[in-house]
């Protein structure tokens, strides 16, 4: 169990579940750095130990709740958020994880850009004045419907609608001094280091290969290469490399002067543009070209223990809200809601109403217990210290009816004739049932508040629920010969009532 002071920083009531893979023995004693303080580790792991039921998955093979720590993720497919195009996985790396089509994002607000066609009318020439017709030229430009930015600010227009993204990239590369600088450096070091390396490699191969024909061919290559080869001893004859601009001078004279004379905020590059475009300096605000739309991906999730697929999205980008396989814990684990919040006063005994909802199509039998009653003790984390509140379950064992899409009047008779509900006839257990309504049951628990004012009241409850799966067998077998399988699951639930007044 986790420290109640680190489960949540808010004072709002909640009901969280704990996955089986986040037990304290695994978290505390299987750490990569044992010398790290356990208190700091507890604070870091607290957000992963307990989660709402809506954030968890369920594995039918393991019959257990699965969180992000005990599941694996794998990319299912890539798609463009603008054109909804499914990009093949083989082409993703070649396109630098960007859309291969003409999908560009606005450099100002990062929204989608649309291609607008503009008509430019010009006066006719002197030769065509007799016709009295105007010469019409069509050109295209990029336009953002959100911030009203268009590519004409950069003198960037297109004659054709096709291959717009490639034209933008080529224009941007010509204007960037870094690309020219890199090409000059590449040619300089190729001449100084790479050519001597290849020549030495050919010489070593010529001495290894014994066949005379290969020996002659390699010798000819060596002789031909040595004619144009500059020896390494004469490498000083190469002219020294000179950059296009001095970096230190550029930084001190231009950027610093611009920072000192900065008057308005829009002259600086916005922060969201600095994150996406790390090659741009913060000052001054330089013209930024649009870039191709970054691809997004959808992932599938599987269990680490049995490799069962828990979440598999639809393979088409047009169905982003649909899944082929999705096993959320909401459809397999009973829900617990706080039906009534009491007034939390130190030293008083209050009654809390909890509503349990059964999402399964089978009747569920539940048993609730506290950490002390279940003898669940963890070294260095005693329940009496972290959870001082005493919990008394008025009805520790009860059942919740199954979920049905359509309810009939005969359903109440089936509840009375059920053999497994004989334990509910006990008066001591029945007095804790506050309400029953279809597939929901409201129970009451008595809690003795032991704590100082301002401290948080968190109730750890071990929920054990049992249900029977449908009887297995062929249709030819009789109902009596078919066997049903009994499934029992356990889950730790953390009910937070608030803070002590």
Highlighted features:
6-stranded antiparallel β-sheet; alpha+beta; 22 strands; 4 domains
Overall 3D shape: elongated
User: Low-confidence spans: pLDDT under 50, at least 5 residues?
Assistant: 1-8, 24-36, 123-127, 232-236, 278-284, 373-383
Largest beta sheet, briefly?
6 strands, antiparallel
Overall average residue pLDDT:
72
InterPro entries: DCTN4
Protein name: Dynactin subunit 4
Main location: cytoplasm
Keywords: Acetylation, Coiled coil, Cytoplasm, Cytoskeleton, Isopeptide bond, Phosphoprotein, Ubl conjugation
Describe the structure.
With 501 residues, the protein is of the alpha+beta class. Helix content is 22%, strand content 27%. The protein has 10 helices and 22 strands. The strands form 6 sheets. Strands 2-1-22-21-16-18 form a 6-stranded antiparallel beta sheet. Helix 4 packs antiparallel against helix 5.
TL;DR of this structure?
The chain is α+β, with helices and mostly antiparallel strands. Helices cover 22% and strands 27% of the residues. It is built from ten helices and 22 strands.
Outline the secondary-structure elements.
Layout: E1 14-18, H1 24-29, H2 38-49, E2 50-51, E3 57-59, E4 64-66, E5 71-79, E6 86-87, E7 104-105, E8 113-122, E9 135-144, H3 164-175, H4 177-208, H5 212-227, H6 247-260, H7 271-276, E10 291-292, E11 296-303, E12 309-313, E13 323-326, E14 335-340, E15 349-357, E16 364-369, H8 383-386, E17 390-393, E18 397-400, H9 411-416, H10 427-430, E19 433-437, E20 440-448, E21 456-468, E22 486-499
Antiparallel strand pairs: 1-2, 1-22, 3-4, 5-6, 5-11, 7-10, 8-9, 11-12, 12-13, 14-15, 15-20, 16-18, 16-21, 17-20, 19-20, 21-22
Helix pairs in contact: 4-5
Main location: cytoplasm
Protein name: Dynactin subunit 4
Subcellular location: Cytoplasm, Cytoskeleton, Microtubule organizing center, Centrosome; Cytoplasm, Cytoskeleton, Stress fiber; Cytoplasm, Myofibril
């Amino acid at each position: 169990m986790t420290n109640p002071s680190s489960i949540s920083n808010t004072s709002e009531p909640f009901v969280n579940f704990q996955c089986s893979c986040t037990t304290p023995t695994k978290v505390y004693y299987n750490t990569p750095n044992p010398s790290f303080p356990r208190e700091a580790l507890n604070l870091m792991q607290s957000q992963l130990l307990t989660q709402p039921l809506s954030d968890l998955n369920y594995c039918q093979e393991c019959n257990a709740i699965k969180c992000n720590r005990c599941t694996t993720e794998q990319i299912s497919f890539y798609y463009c958020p603008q054109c909804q195009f499914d990009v093949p996985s083989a082409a993703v790396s070649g396109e630098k994880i960007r859309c291969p089509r003409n999908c560009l994002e606005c450099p100002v607000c990062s929204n989608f850009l649309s291609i607008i066609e503009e008509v430019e009318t010009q006066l006719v020439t002197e030769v065509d004045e007799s016709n009295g017709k105007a010469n019409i030229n069509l050109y295209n430009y990029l336009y953002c419907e959100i911030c009203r930015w268009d590519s004409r600010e950069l003198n960037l227009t297109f004659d054709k609608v096709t291959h717009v993204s490639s034209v933008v990239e080529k224009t941007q590369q010509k204007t960037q001094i870094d690309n020219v600088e890199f090409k000059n450096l590449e040619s300089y070091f190729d001449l100084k280091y790479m050519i001597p390396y290849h020549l030495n490699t050919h010489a070593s191969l010529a001495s290894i290969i014994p066949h005379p024909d290969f020996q002659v061919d390699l010798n000819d290559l060596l002789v031909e290469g040595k004619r144009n080869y500059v020896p390494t001893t004469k490498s000083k004859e190469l002219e020294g490399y000179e950059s296009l601009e001095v970096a230190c001078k550029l930084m001190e004279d231009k950027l610093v002067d611009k920072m000192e004379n900065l008057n308005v905020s829009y002259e600086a590059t916005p922060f969201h543009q600095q994150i996406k475009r790390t090659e741009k300096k913060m000052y001054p605000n330089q013209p930024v070209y649009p870039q191709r739309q970054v691809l997004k991906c959808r992932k599938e999730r599987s269990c680490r223990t049995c490799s069962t697929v828990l979440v598999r999205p639809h393979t088409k980008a047009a169905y982003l809200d649909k899944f082929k396989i999705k096993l959320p814990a909401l459809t397999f684990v009973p829900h617990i809601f706080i039906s009534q919040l009491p007034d939390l006063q130190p030293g008083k005994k209050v009654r809390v109403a909890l509503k349990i909802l059964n999402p399964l199509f089978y009747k569920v039998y539940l048993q609730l217990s506290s950490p002390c009653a279940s003898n669940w003790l963890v070294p260095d984390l005693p329940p009496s210290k972290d959870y001082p509140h005493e919990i008394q379950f008025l009805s520790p064992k009860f059942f919740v009816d199954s979920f049905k899409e359509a309810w009939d009047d005969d359903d109440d008779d089936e509840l009375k004739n059920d053999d497994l509900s004989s334990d509910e006839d006990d008066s001591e257990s029945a007095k804790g049932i506050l309400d029953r309504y279809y597939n929901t049951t409201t129970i009451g628990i008595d809690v003795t508040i032991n704590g100082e004012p301002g401290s948080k009241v968190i109730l750890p409850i071990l929920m054990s629920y049992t249900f029977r799966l449908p009887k297995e067998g062929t249709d030819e077998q009789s109902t009596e010969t078919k066997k049903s399988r009994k499934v029992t699951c356990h889950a730790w639930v953390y009910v937070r009532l608030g803070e002590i007044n």
